[in-house]
Amino acid sequence: MTTRIVTDSTAYLPADVIEQHGIEIVSLHVVVGGRDHIEGRDITAQQVAAALRDYTIVTTSRPTPQVFAETYQRLAEEGATAIVSVHLSSQMSGTVEAARLAAAEAPVPVEVVDSETIGMAMGFAVVAAAESAAGGADVPTVLEVIRARLEPSGVLFYVDTLEHLRRGGRIGAASALLGSALAIKPILAVRGGRIVPVEKVRTSSRAVARIEAMVVEHVEKGGNVADVAVHHLDAAARADQIAAELRELVPGSPKVLVVELGAVVGAHVGPGTVAIAVSPHPGESLPEPPAQGPDGHAGS
Predict the structure, then answer these.
(1) Which candidate among 63, 199, 251, 271 keeps its CA 20 to 30 Å from the CA of 80?
(2) Pairwise CA distance, residues 213 & 265, whole Å
(3) Dihedral of alpha carbons 105, 108, 114, 120, sign
C-alpha cells in the first residue's frame, strides 16, 4: 500500500520539507483589490502586507472541490492506493468541506482530517504523517500519528491590531474595539478550531515575553520534547529574535523554525504579526534536569 499525504498552503511548510517528504499542497486563494491570486504561486506575503497597509480590500477563499478532485486523481495515477488529506480548521475555512466533497468521488480511499488548527501546528503533524506513511504504516496508523501530534499542539499569536481579524470576521467586533480603545496588545490562541483572545497586555515587548513564557509552560506541563515554529508577517527581525530566545528557554533543545506566514493567514492577522506553533512529540519525554548539589548548583 502506498499512502500519500495532502495538506493545504496554510500549513506554511518550508519548500525543502515539502520536497523531502513528497507532501502534496493544495493552495487557498487570496483576492486583493478584486484580483484573484493563488497562495504561494503568484502573490507574496509582502504584497499582502503592503495591500493591508494601503487599506486595499483583501479577502480569502477556499480551493474548489474540483481542484481537490484533480489532485486525488493525479496521486492515484502516480500509484497512491490511499490518501490522507489534512487541512486547516473548518471553523476558519471551507477547505475541509471541499476536500470531503472531492474525497467522496476519488478513485482511491481518501481520509480527510480537520486539524482544528493552522500553520506549523498542522504542518508538524503533516510531516509526521508523511514519515509514518513512508515507513509503510497503514492508514489507521497514519491517522493516529496525526491525532497524537495535533492533540497537544498549540498556536499563540501576537498581533499589532485586531482590526484585520475583525474585518475578516475571525474575531468579534467588540474585542477589536476594546483593544483599540485601550491601546491593548492582544495575545490570541487557536482553541477549538477558532482564533480567540486569551490575554491582553500593554506593550508589544510584554506580549512577546508573555507568549514565550506560555510556550515554555506548555512544553514543561506536557513533559515531552516539542517542535517549535515562529511564524511572522513582515516582522522577520522580531521572529528571528524570538526563535533565538526560544532555543534557550524551551527545555529539550527544540528545533525552532522561522517561517513567514503566507498570504491567506496574513490577510486576516495583518503586518507585524508573530505566531508561535508548538507541537510536542508524544512518548518522547523531556530530559531530566541536572541534579542540584547542596550549594544549589548542578552536581557532578
Answers:
(1) 63
(2) 24
(3) negative
In sequence order, which residues have a C-beta less than 8 Å from that of residue 175 and are 6 or more positions away? 162, 166, 186, 197
Instruction: Look at strands 29-32 and 110-114 and give their pairing.
Output: unpaired
Q: Are 26 and 41 a contacting pair, CB within 8 Å?
A: no
Which neighbouring-strand residues pair with 25?
7
The pTM (predicted TM-score) of the whole model is: 0.89
What's the grid cell of residue 235?
A: 516582522
Three-class DSSP category at 195: strand
Dihedral angle computed from the Cα positions of residues 189, 191, 282 and 288, in that order, rounded to the nearest 10 degrees: 40
- Main-chain dihedrals φ then ψ at residue 272, nearest 5 degrees: 90, -5
Helices (H), ranges, the chain: 15-21, 45-53, 65-77, 95-103, 120-134, 139-150, 163-167, 173-181, 204-222, 236-249, 263-269
Q: Which residues of 60-91 are buried (b: 16+ CB within 10 A; e: fewer)?
A: bebbebebbbebbeebbeeebebbbbbbbbbe
Give me the helix-helix angle, 204-222 and 236-249, nearest 10°: 40
Say which residues have a Cβ less than 8 Å from residue 9's Cβ, sequence separation at least 6.
Answer: 25, 26, 27, 28, 39, 40, 262, 264
pLDDT in 10s for each residue of the chain, 300 residues: 799 999 999 999 999 999 999 999 999 998 988 899 998 888 888 888 888 888 888 888 999 999 999 999 999 999 999 999 999 999 999 999 999 999 999 999 999 999 999 999 999 999 999 999 999 999 999 999 999 999 999 999 888 766 777 776 666 654 655 555 556 777 889 988 988 888 888 888 898 999 999 999 999 999 999 999 999 988 899 999 999 999 999 998 888 999 988 888 888 778 888 999 999 999 889 987 655 555 555 554
